[in-house]
Specification:
- This protein starts with a helix and ends in a 20-residue tail after the last helix.
- The protein is 52% helix and 18% strand.
- The protein has 3 domains: 116 residues, no CATH class; 147 residues, Reverse transcriptase/Diguanylate cyclase domain (Alpha-Beta Plaits); 233 residues, EAL domain (TIM Barrel, Alpha-Beta Barrel).
- Helix 4 runs antiparallel to helix 5, helix 7 crosses helix 8 and helix 11 crosses helix 12.
- An 8-stranded mixed β-barrel has the order 8-9-11-12-13-14-15-16, surrounded by 4 helices. A 5-stranded mixed β-sheet has the order 2-3-1-6-7, with helices on both faces. A two-stranded antiparallel sheet has the order 4-5.
- By secondary structure, it is an alpha/beta fold.
- It is built from 21 helices and 16 strands.
């Protein structure tokens, strides 16, 4: 450490004072004033290495000894005994102070090192943290003719792994991930833990092609499992990359750009890598603005529920409705859930929004019952994020008691991806069934179908995803897939609902397969609640020209 100038001044002053007093007062009070020179020893011990400090202490002893000899030379010898006593006593004090200060200095330095580690390093992984990361990027950017590449990495599935094997084993997996990243990437790469499951890697003097190679190397490793308690655990990597030369680099800006690119990967592919572009930045700030508005959407009464009728395909009569959330924004108009639901799930806002949907749908169904429509069945969508909310079942049960509704007239729809975590989904589904609700698997066939889980879960119906229905009856392969899903449903004694029916040919094909229930634009688009009343009271058959209004959405609604 660099010794402050003030301390040097104190040291020199404490040496000059005894000498000055000695000359002016002819050694009269030397024995009492010489001890002032000991004063700098303690503060100097904090700055000097122990060997330098010993040399410093010894120099003070020599200074005293030299003064004693000078006094013996200029005097008649009457002060020699006193000076020797002063010398011996001072030497003892200096020696004692040296060892005391050295011990104190070591403790001080150890504490300093611990505080420094807490301030600049992650406690779990021992990797540099955000603070040290920013300093490193700034240091590199200040070097002339140095390109900087930033790789912002988010580890997907880490929360799911912690929920599956526990936090302690989750930490073990995280440490293994750190070892893998360190092993795979360049030796001169600076790796830091940014936050939770996010890591940042800094490369200097790197090209775009080299960064792509590093990213691909890391992505290829996602197929290699981590083994914990005989379980094979896999992770995904969302990687955002930014690169700049030193003339245009700002440490905060380049980190932000890589972060934005990483979020773009998460929103688009879940796993992969992208280089930052200006368009990403514009989209990012649009999402930030959208999130800000969404937080107050319930309070400002901007959310509304549209209902898409379900029909008996034989009689063409309405047998139920699916509650679909819409956002009526004062600036952008009706916003489709394909835009804001993923954002709500990512930010956790879906918890409060989902409960609002349940409360409003229960209330609406109660009103319909009071109007005399007792046989209607209403479906409510529930996402995987909502299932993890431990209070959701209690909330549903409370709303049921408040409204006195028949639970058999309410169905909760879970997406196929929701049942991948069978532990979470099974307990939630069993809880709903114990309360008397029906449970349906929505968008069946889109994701990886866990048929074993399907056979063990107490579900009541399957909904064939509209992506299959859209290609009927032209594609022979798709006809076989839909037929297979129908047969699977019959074997499991499940009701089958076809969604996304848009043409007469699709309807005729489904009827030929024996599908009894369906919904889609052929019958009705999602409609607001006042249009539902009109449709129900009209008693019409729901033909294509009746009972729906067009939606003006930013993207095509469900």
């Amino acid at each position: 450490m660099k010794i402050p100038m003030k301390l040097w001044f104190l040291f020199i002053l404490c040496l000059i004072i005894p000498l000055t007093v000695d000359i002016v007062f002819n050694h009269g009070i030397l024995e009492s004033i010489w001890f002032i020179s000991v004063i700098p020893i303690i503060p100097f011990s904090f700055y000097l290495h122990k060997y330098k400090f010993m040399l410093f202490s010894f120099s003070i002893v020599l200074f005293h000894f030299k003064s004693m000899l000078i006094m013996y030379w200029i005097d008649d010898g009457t002060y020699i005994m006193k000076d020797v006593e002063v010398f011996i006593f001072t030497t003892i004090i200096i020696t004692f102070t040296h060892f005391f200060s050295l011990s104190w200095s070591n403790t001080f330095k150890e504490t300093n090192e611990r505080l420094n580690k807490l301030a600049f390093y992650d406690s779990l992984t021992d990797l540099p943290n955000q603070a040290l990361l920013q300093e490193e990027v700034k240091r590199i950017s200040n070097k002339p003719q140095t390109n900087i590449g930033i790789m912002f990495i988010n580890i997907g599935n880490l929360k799911h792994i912690r929920a599956t094997v526990g936090n302690s084993y989750g930490d073990v997996v995280l440490m293994d991930i750190v070892k893998r990243i360190t092993f795979l990437l360049s030796d001169d790469a600076f790796i830091a833990r940014y936050d939770g499951s996010e890591f940042v890697v800094v490369f200097k003097n790197v090209t775009k092609s080299a960064l792509e190679e590093q990213a691909r190397k890391l992505l290829d490793s996602k197929f290699d499992p981590f083994i914990i308690n005989n379980l094979e655990l896999f992770v995904d990597y969302s990687i955002g990359i930014s690169i700049c030369n030193n003339s245009s680099c700002n440490e905060l800006e380049i980190l932000k750009e890589a972060n934005i690119a990483m979020y773009e990967v998460e929103n688009s592919f879940k796993s992969g890598y992208l280089f930052f572009t200006k368009a990403m930045k514009d989209n990012y700030f649009e999402r930030i603005e959208l999130e800000s508005y969404l937080r107050y959407a319930i309070e400002k009464k901007e959310l509304c529920i549209y209902y898409q009728p379900k029909f008996d395909l034989k009689t063409k009569k309405i047998i139920g409705l699916e509650a679909l959330l819409r956002w009526n924004h004062p600036k952008w108009g009706i916003i489709s859930p394909t835009i804001f639901i993923p954002l709500a799930e990512k930010t956790g806002l879906i918890i409060s929004i989902g409960k609002w949907v349940i409360r409003e749908t229960f209330k609406t169904l109660e009103d319909w019952n009071n109007e005399g429509f007792h046989d209607l069945k209403v479906s409510i969508n529930v996402s995987a994020v909502q299932i993890r909310d431990r209070s959701l079942l209690d909330f549903i049960e409370m709303r049921l008691k408040e409204t006195n509704l028949d639970p058999s007239h309410i169905e909760f729809e879970l997406t196929e991806s929701t049942i991948h975590n069978i532990n979470e989904s099974k307990s939630f589904i069993i809880g709903l069934r114990s309360l008397g609700f029906a449970v349906s698997i929505d968008d069946f066939g889109v994701g990886y179908s866990n048929l074993n889980a399907l056979s063990h879960l107490p579900i009541s119906s399957l909904k064939i995803d509209k992506s299959f229905i859209n290609k009927l009856p032209e594609m022979a392969g798709m006809k076989k897939i839909v037929s297979a899903i129908m047969n699977l449903g019959r074997e499991l004694d499940l009701e089958i609902v076809a969604e996304g029916i848009e043409t007469e040919d699709q309807l005729l094909f489904l009827e030929a397969l024996g599908c009894e229930k369906g919904q889609g634009f052929l019958f009705s688009k999602p409609i607001p609640i006042d249009e539902v009343y009109t449709l129900l009271r009209s008693g019409e058959d729901g033909s294509p020209d009746n009972g729906y209004v067009e939606e003006q959405c930013l993207t095509e609604p469900k």
